[in-house]
Design goal:
The complex is a heterodimer of chains A (about 400) and B (about 375). With about 400 residues, chain A is of the alpha/beta class. Chain A folds into two domains: about 130 residues, no CATH class; about 250 residues, Alkaline Phosphatase, subunit A. Chain A is about 50% helix and about 10% strand. Chain B has one domain: Alkaline Phosphatase, subunit A, CATH 3.40.720. Chain B has twelve helices and ten strands. In chain B, strands 1, 2, 3, 4, 5, 6, 7, 8, 9 and 10 form a ten-stranded mixed beta sheet that branches. Chain B is globular. The chains are: A alpha/beta (about 400), B alpha/beta (about 375). At the A-B interface, helix 8, helix 11, helix 12, helix 14 and helix 15 of A face helix 6, helix 9 and helix 10 of B.
Chain lengths: ~400, ~375
């Protein structure tokens, strides 16, 4: 089946809002190439469970596509049309399983050496869309916090090396009450500019109590979901014929109800949390990658105005000789390794934040919890500078704020 | 906003330049293009029969910034200080194929960008270097060996191509699998240890057999199953086990063509940066130990060329399609561009070559060194080496 054959009844299985949305733009979707359409449908299919920013983005994208003339459409999608796809892909159920199609399409593009051409077409499309879309500056200065190194008493290597060149490194931040100061700032921002899914707190362990208006996701609170998911994965792997692709398909189809979360009070958030584990790699096992990946998805999908990520020690990886000993031990944590993980995670959080509108004005603070090291990045902060004077966290926040 | 993005080609060029500059600065190496004399390999015809080649894939995809770029130098002290000064170093090796470890290793071994299923235990679609080597030079099966990390590499030794194929390839040894067989019925925590690879940590292709492999331990490697299992308990990682097996092979079989695939670094897929760095540092140490073994093993000392190269890189921190070091999925310049270190017999010391080469050039280059013709390879001879 090709996009030109799409009919209203093709979308019978779509959630209600998604179905209404796609049907109102069906004419233009029929004109688009197969190499592109399933990627679009993948977003549409999640429309009912999307964050407000995502819903606006997909609505805007469809409107822009509809506004293109035939010549413009040809210009925008010529490279996608040039991608050759197999008949197996054409005949697959890409309408109802667009995510699986995209997975298989990716493998096919790799194997036929068309990945670079697809990559070029996708990049060009993204650039054009960005140029056409009305820019939406954030409702307030975007601010990110990364708190790393929980449980590390001493660390001698230089910290935040990737971030220092983009801001100012402080070596004597007063750590007393600093975490509470950060949390209070997050709460104040949520109070002053209430926005659905606009202010987030991600914790690699158990969260500190925080005020309303903040969306809180924590590794510990999702322990039940993780355990349940891992059990299902192990059971699936044991089945004959189960390979990595089948496993990915199984994970992609999973819903919160499958893991006993059918009564979740916030279906958007519970779907988001599920995807942290079904789409993330390592998030089921290590709290540090859970925190980093969650931050990435919060910024990419919800375009958070405020994001506090607090890393916690992850479980230690046991070396081979210890595994071979057969001795079961209580799980141990690796605070120093987790600090190294989190340092990189903080850098990625800043990169992800800088991809969003208003990046020139955004602010970011990474802090070594319980210690004096911090990097502050903001429009008025000197780059590559150092300060070795005592400073309070409150002062640091005011320095990066515009 | 992010700095203006560079084209893939420009990123690749900058990446290469940073490696070259660093190497030249730190190790006092010379630029290869400035050297015009003929390769010392040209006079090596008389020793070809004794010539040996060891290929090490620098396990599981590593980026420049954690290896030879200035900020990565602390992770590879042994290669930098001990091996680089006596090596020819190629700063710009690109892999234009599929960036999965088995298929990429198969491409390295055939000299053709293979398109097989990365997660299935299937044979390469083109003749391997081992088949060319054994067929052209009439070598026995004991003269070509592969030491590989996981079940998925079981078929890497030979293709099924007419005129080549079964019986003409390399013997493959999978140390982790041997360990599993040797300890079957034990109490060890194999769920964690024996997961097949880090790309799909929960999936292991099923292999038949087992008894024959255990017999290899005693008949070829000359140690008992118990000794093997005991020694494994002193090692901290699967790659250490691979090195241990490789050294036993060198001592007992002395193959002329030995291929070792390291894999610890690919723990990066778990997303733990510290474990990825730990893997690089371990692999750095293991490469130095392997070279030391080559230099001290009578069958290898003085007549062996060792190639060390990652099968590919990993995604850039700045590519929005990936998640930085964690994976190698975007196909961006950072994931496709890497390096190669060549040292030992017939190789110029302390020379840096900045011209681009491809990973599939490895097979014809080794063919030029050892004297076989990889007729179906699509790579080109690296003239600076052969």
């Amino acid at each position: 089946m090709l996009p030109r054959d799409l009919k209203a009844e093709s979308f019978a299985a779509y959630p209600p809002d998604a179905k209404a949305l796609i049907l109102s733009h069906l004419d233009v979707v029929r004109e688009l190439p197969l190499a592109f359409v399933p990627s679009l449908l993948r977003q549409v299919m999640e429309y009912d469970y999307s964050f407000p920013v995502e819903r606006s983005a997909i609505e805007s994208e469809l409107k822009i596509l509809e506004s293109l003339s035939a010549a413009q459409r040809h210009d925008w999608f010529g490279d996608f049309t040039g991608i050759s796809l197999s008949s197996a892909l054409e005949n697959s159920d890409w309408i109802n399983s667009p995510a699986q199609f995209v997975e298989q399409e990716s493998a096919y593009l790799w194997s036929t050496h068309q990945l670079d051409a697809f990559r070029k077409a996708a990049t060009q499309y993204g650039d054009r869309l960005e140029n056409e879309a009305q820019p939406h500056p954030p409702a307030m200065q975007r601010m990110g916090f990364a708190v790393v190194g929980q449980g590390v008493a001493e660390y001698r290597d230089p910290l935040f090396r990737n971030l220092r060149k983009h801001g100012t490194w402080f070596s004597q931040v007063n750590s007393n009450g600093a975490l509470q100061t950060i949390l209070s700032e997050v709460e104040e921002r949520a109070r002053s500019r209430p926005t659905a899914y606009g202010h987030w707190y991600v914790d690699g362990s158990a969260p500190i109590a925080c005020g309303s208006g903040i969306t809180c996701v924590s590794y510990e609170r999702l322990g039940g979901m993780r355990t349940s998911l891992l059990k299902r994965m192990q059971a699936a792997i044991a089945r004959p014929g189960m390979g990595p692709e089948e496993l990915r398909t199984l994970l992609a189809r999973m819903t919160p109800a499958d893991l006993g979360m059918e009564n979740a009070s916030d279906p958007v958030l519970s779907r988001f949390q599920l995807k942290l584990f079904t789409e993330g790699s390592g998030t089921q096992i290590y709290s540090t990658i859970f925190a980093q990946w969650t931050a990435r998805e919060v910024l990419r999908r919800a375009q958070a105005l405020t994001l506090l990520v607090r890393y916690a020690p992850r479980q230690r990886q046991r070396p081979m000789n210890e595994l071979l000993s057969g001795k079961r031990r209580e799980p141990e944590v690796d605070p120093t390794g987790s600090l190294v993980d989190a340092e990189m995670g903080a850098y990625y959080q800043w990169i992800d934040q800088q991809r969003l509108p208003g990046a020139e004005q955004s602010a970011f603070i990474a802090w070594f919890e319980g210690h004096g090291d911090a990097v502050a990045i903001g429009p008025s902060m000197p780059r590559g500078a150092e300060s070795h004077s005592p400073v309070e966290m409150r002062k640091l926040i005011s320095l990066v704020s515009t | 906003m992010m700095p203006h993005s560079l084209s893939s080609r420009e990123v690749a060029r900058r990446v290469s330049c940073s490696r070259r500059d660093f190497l030249r600065g730190a190790a006092g190496l010379a630029l290869g293009s400035a050297i015009s004399q003929a390769s010392p390999l040209l006079r090596a015809e008389s020793i070809r029969k004794k010539r040996k080649v060891v290929v090490v894939t620098f396990g599981g995809g590593a980026r420049d910034q954690e290896t030879f770029a200035p900020e990565g130098q602390e992770n590879i002290p042994r290669m930098l200080n001990e091996l680089a000064p006596q090596s020819s170093f190629f700063t710009h090796v690109s892999n234009e194929g599929i960036l999965g470890h088995y298929v990429a290793t198969a491409s390295l071994a055939t000299g053709v960008y293979e398109t097989l299923n990365n997660f299935a235990a299937v044979a390469p679609e083109h003749p391997t270097i081992f088949e060319y080597f054994r067929k052209d030079l009439r070598r026995p099966s004991s003269d070509a060996w592969v030491v590989a990390p996981s079940n998925g590499f079981n078929r890497i030794g030979e293709s099924q191509v007419r005129g080549f194929g079964p019986g003409l390839g390399a013997r493959v040894i999978l140390p982790k699998r041997l360990l599993g067989l040797a300890n079957s019925g034990g109490t060890a925590d194999y769920d964690h240890l024996l997961h097949d690879n880090y790309e799909t940590p929960l999936y292991t292709p099923v292999l038949a057999g087992g008894e024959v492999e255990l017999q290899q331990l005693e008949s070829i490697l000359k140690f008992s199953v118990d000794d093997f299992a005991s020694h494994a308990r002193t090692l901290s990682s699967p790659d250490e086990l691979s090195l241990y097996i490789a050294k036993r092979l060198m001592r007992e079989e002395a193959p002329s063509l030995l291929w070792i695939t390291m894999h610890d670094i690919d723990v990066a897929h778990s997303g733990a940066y510290s474990l990825y760095i730990e893997g690089i540092r371990r692999t750095d140490r293991l490469c130095a130990e392997l070279w030391k073994a080559i230099e001290t093993e009578p069958e290898y000392a003085g007549n062996t060329t060792m190639f060390v190269l990652p099968d590919f890189g990993r995604d850039s921190d700045l590519d929005a399609g990936g998640n930085g070091f964690q994976h190698h999925r975007t196909g961006d310049a950072a994931s496709r561009t890497t390096w190669m270190m060549v040292l030992g017999a017939g190789v110029r010391h302390g020379v840096v070559y900045n011209d681009p080469v491809q990973s599939i050039d490895l097979v014809p280059t080794i063919g030029g060194m050892l004297g076989f013709s990889p007729s179906q390879s699509r790579g080109e001879l690296i003239r600076e080496l052969a």
